Amino acid sequence: MLFAKRKEVSPKLSKTQATAFGVIAILMWAILALLTAGTGQVPPFQLVAMSFAIAFLLAVGKWLWRRENPLIYLRLPAKVWIFGISGLFGYHLFYFLALRNAPVIEASLIAYLWPLLIVLFSALLPTETLKWQHIAGALIGFAGAYLLVAKGAMPSLDPAYAIGYLAAAACALIWSGYSVISRRFATLPTDTVGGFCGVTAVLAVIAHLIFEDTVWPANIGQWFSAVGLGLGPVGAAFFFWDIAVKRGHIQVLGALSYLAPLFSSLVLIAAGLAVGSWQILVACLLITGGAVVASFDVMFKRRSGGRDGNGGSTSTIE
Residue 160: is it exposed, middle or buried by C-beta count within 10 angstroms (0-12/13-18/19+)? Predict the structure, then answer.
């Protein structure tokens, strides 16, 4: 077998524990906007290249520290490389294309369909059951995200921005597809994400040289923000997310993902870069409520003779 010598991904984690890794990733993504703003005038693709290069170096450092052969994690079939690179680089490529070719509000709202699509696409997984509370929780969360992004305004879809809208839709499809299809590669260790980060960094350099002028961080604070992106939201977060989507409650993860824009807004307010409003308060209630609804069967389990799928003896109140 091709993967026989590779370790199984976190075999001792329960689904709830694996889901917790996803929550950590979501919390890291919540500081993405703050750190990005802190990098000054560094252009997007250059920032992606720098961040994913740091993420790759994190993986290399781990392999050297544990005296592991990197080829164990990098000698992969072509379809795996295509899958991983399409997820990481493809999402960022289409996201920036969307922002370049459509108004920010409409592009962001379309791109933020990915948590809802994760919930819906999970129905295609043979080991998952899509329940009403998962769909309801994701829809409520999207309503909260709408308030955060649109701030109560009614977005208009102008045909003149069709390319941008399509790019934003591609973002949502790519990341939701990457997250759900990761279950297909559940036997691959999370360290393979390090290789995906390395190739993504190279492709981002190429895109940067084609579309952008190089602008380096102007001071220590901006360098700190750039390195922070590579260590957190565009680094460790992807490794944690990999564990979560392969082993966790994927429908719950989809609904919980709407916490990222909420916490991002709260962080920006705390940093003095945004102003609080009634929309944020209502969005907080909607997104939190949606997460609770989607997580109902996980949060209110009771002990019985059933199995959680990872060794836990539980039954679910439905």
Answer: exposed
